[in-house]
Automatic annotation (TrEMBL), chain A:
Origin species: Hibiscus trionum
One GO BP annotation of this record: proteolysis
Class of the enzyme per the UniProt entry, highest EC level: hydrolase
Full protein name: beta-aspartyl-peptidase
InterPro entries named in the record: Ntn_hydrolases_N, Peptidase_T2
Subunit structure: Heterotetramer of two alpha and two beta chains arranged as a dimer of alpha/beta heterodimers.
TrEMBL record, chain B:
Record flagged with keyword Protease: yes
Reaction(s) catalysed by this chain's protein: Cleavage of a beta-linked Asp residue from the N-terminus of a polypeptide
MF term (GO), any: beta-aspartyl-peptidase activity
Subunit structure: Heterotetramer of two alpha and two beta chains arranged as a dimer of alpha/beta heterodimers.
Domain of life: Eukaryota
Name of the featured protein: beta-aspartyl-peptidase
Active site positions, chain numbering: T189 (nucleophile)
InterPro entries: Ntn_hydrolases_N, Peptidase_T2
Origin organism lineage: Eukaryota, Viridiplantae, Streptophyta, Embryophyta, Tracheophyta
Residue numbers binding substrate: R217, I218, G219, D220, T239, G240, K241, G242
């Protein structure tokens, strides 16, 4: 018991037909991020700095749905959001609707550290970013060819589907990519690519922190805000625990998923693993999601009710694991 | 079992000495809105319809910090936000950054019912409003002279305020106004919670936010779990200092401690408010568990709430706790 622990994720809900090469790429990225976090922890960086560092790495890499490589809005643009929370004192910061900020999680941190507010969005957030002198780029920078293709498939899928729950059976131009009947948020899983990223850390002093970052739902309406920037839904940290969630945003919000883990620990006295199991089993209803969590005692846990979740975790006593399924 | 409804016009250390010229119009407005809500419940409208209706009324009254009468951002503009939640299904809707939509709470409801999303903000929300054909107005419609004055005071004092200030007297002595202990103003976020005789619960909250807030600042009111929450146990609408309520997940916690610690509604509300620094939060809540009191308000909420005894007689009163 005790000691540091770290977990990272790259999204819950993985296409069972995902090419092996892509799975390996994801595992390599998660491993690299874990090592970055572990180095930082060994240098005694506090948890809040570590989560920011790791999520920056995930945002910068185009593989997952955050920063560069974000999912596209219905207009083909990128609108990013993120939140970060520091367990001691439960300080928090969040941003939404970012279009030029290279690292949303860092802007969220600045909201927490440099403003009297907790959450800034859209034009106001961009203006704040300019004033803070953070690195800004054109919206194009975030857009990848992969995602342009995905958006097209998503639009085709939406024009065929009348109801979220009717499985598609490869009836449109997507061919083999559309054959999986698994759906999330009304889209075939091959297209939905939930891949929000997040990191939770507890440092040697037992301080917990959490951060989550995303481009949001593929083909979302502009202005749509999901769970990732909402404290209590996508992200939460307090004295006991740090949590980052991913999956169907609406389901996560409705169940205030991140807070739920902490609440059952706080109010029902469950252990970290019991809390994560309980929340995933009983609090999601029909929603599909996953989460990672660390406790102040140096434990790490993850849970998901989806087919797979890109994740990695490590603890000070040498345990390390990266997985997809 | 019967129905119950509670509504509020904000919290934040309202001095008991609030002068009559400020208190009476607000009481009258609250009374009117309460009557609207009661009539709807008696007509067997679903609590979701009831809370939307009541909050629309509150938004339309210029005395409260929502809709018309919203406080101003540091740029002198209005950015409104709201959320609504149905306890039975836990469906919810939220909006932020509205500048022309007359009734933010109704747009939040449309997000819930007409989109696959829960939360729309800023230009996207405004575009959706136009698509839906909801009532919009020129941004100047929402601005009142009192709020222009509040912003001026806040900027002079270089402070972001919860929207409670000393009464806007025509005194040129800004220092007097600034002498308020924490500089908070005396108008507030609005909200309503309701439960019908079948135990269906709903909650809605709406606001213009903080005086002199940064453009783009989002508070607790549109955040499910912070300002608004409803499930099968209770419905909560909270108000106060948004940042404290976000980190305290106030609305959600009331339901959580009832469920996980077995507290009564009143105990749960007191517990949760006790976790937040004093003067930072208040809430209204109703439960479906048939306990009395059916409603609870804390701590300095300017609120009217009745407890239904029978159709003929329903006592209600104004609570200004200290």
């Amino acid at each position: 018991m005790g000691g540091w622990a770290i977990a990272v994720h790259g999204g819950a809900g993985v296409d069972p037909n995902l090419p092996k090469e892509r799975q390996e790429e994801a595992k390599r990225l998660l491993t690299r991020c874990l090592h970055i976090g572990i180095s930082a922890l060994r240098s005694n960086l506090p948890a809040i700095d570590v989560v920011e560092l790791v999520v920056r790495e995930l945002e910068t890499d185009p593989l997952f749905n955050s920063g560069r490589g974000s999912a596209l809005t219905e207009k083909g643009t990128v609108e990013m959001e993120a939140s970060i929370m520091d367990g001691p004192k439960r300080r928090c910061g969040a941003v939404s609707g970012l279009t030029t900020v290279k690292n949303p999680v860092s802007l969220a941190r600045l909201v927490m550290d440099k403003t009297p507010h907790s959450y800034l969005a859209f034009a106001g957030a961009e203006e704040f970013a300019r004033k803070q002198g953070v690195e800004l780029v054109d919206n194009d920078y975030f857009i990848t060819e992969d995602n342009v293709g995905m958006l097209k498939l998503a639009k085709e899928a939406n024009s065929i589907l009348f109801d979220y729950r009717i499985p598609t059976l490869g009836t449109c131009g997507g061919g083999a990519a559309m054959e999986s009947p698994i759906q999330m948020n009304g889209l075939p899983i091959s297209v939905y690519a939930p891949e929000t990223v997040g990191c939770v850390v507890v440092d040697k002093e037992g301080r917990c922190a959490a951060a989550t970052s995303t481009g949001g739902l593929m083909n979302k309406m502009t202005g749509r805000i999901g769970d990732s920037p909402l404290i209590g839904s996508g992200t939460y940290a307090c004295d006991l625990v740090g949590v980052s969630c991913t999956g169907e945003g609406e389901a996560i919000i409705r169940s205030t998923l991140a807070r739920e883990v902490a609440a059952v620990m706080e109010y029902k006295g469950l252990s970290l693993h019991e809390a994560v199991d309980y929340v995933i089993k009983y609090r999601l209803d029909e929603g599909k999601a996953g989460l990672i969590a660390v406790s102040k005692n140096g434990e790490v846990a993850c849970g998901f009710n989806t087919t797979g979740m890109f994740r990695g975790c490590a603890t000070e006593d040498g345990f390390m694991e990266v997985g997809v399924w | 079992m019967g129905w119950a409804i509670a509504l509020h016009g904000g919290a934040g250390d309202i001095p008991l000495s609030l002068p009559p010229e400020l208190r009476l119009p607000r009481e009258a407005s609250l009374r009117h809105c309460l009557d609207v809500g009661i009539a709807a419940l008696k007509a067997h409208k679903h609590p979701l319809d009831v809370v939307e209706l009541v909050v629309r009324e509150l938004e339309n009254h210029p005395h409260f910090n929502a809709g018309k009468g919203s406080v101003l951002t540091s740029s002198g503009t209005v950015e409104m936000e709201a959320s609504i939640m149905d306890g039975q299904t836990k469906r919810c809707g939220a909006v932020s950054g509205l500048s022309t939509v007359v009734n933010a709470v109704s747009l939040a409801r449309l997000v819930m019912e007409k989109t696959p999303h829960i939360y729309l903000g800023f230009h996207g929300a405004e575009a959706f409003a136009r698509e839906q054909g909801v009532e919009t107005a020129d941004p100047s419609y929402f601005v009142t002279p009192e709020n222009i004055e509040r912003l001026k005071q806040a900027q002079e004092a270089n402070r972001v305020q919860i929207d409670y200030t000393q009464p806007i007297k025509k005194e040129p002595n800004v220092a007097a106004a600034a002498r308020i202990p924490n500089g908070d103003s005396q108008i507030g976020t609005v909200g309503c919670v309701a439960v019908d005789s079948e135990g269906n619960l709903a909650s809605a909250t709406s606001t213009g936010g903080l005086v002199n807030k940064m453009a783009g600042r989002i508070g607790d009111s549109p955040i499910i779990g912070a300002g608004t929450y409803a499930n099968h146990i209770c419905a909560v609408s909270a108000t106060g200092k948004g940042e404290a309520m976000i980190r305290g997940t106030v609305a959600r916690d009331v339901a959580a401690v009832m469920e996980f610690k077995g507290l009564s509604l009143k105990e749960a509300a007191a517990y949760v408010i006790g976790q937040v620094p004093p003067g930072n939060a208040g809430l209204v809540a109703v439960s479906s568990t048939g306990e009395t009191p059916r409603c609870t308000i804390l701590p300095e909420c300017f609120v009217l709430l009745p407890v239904k005894m029978d159709i003929q007689r329903f006592p209600y009163g104004i609570f200004q706790l200290k």
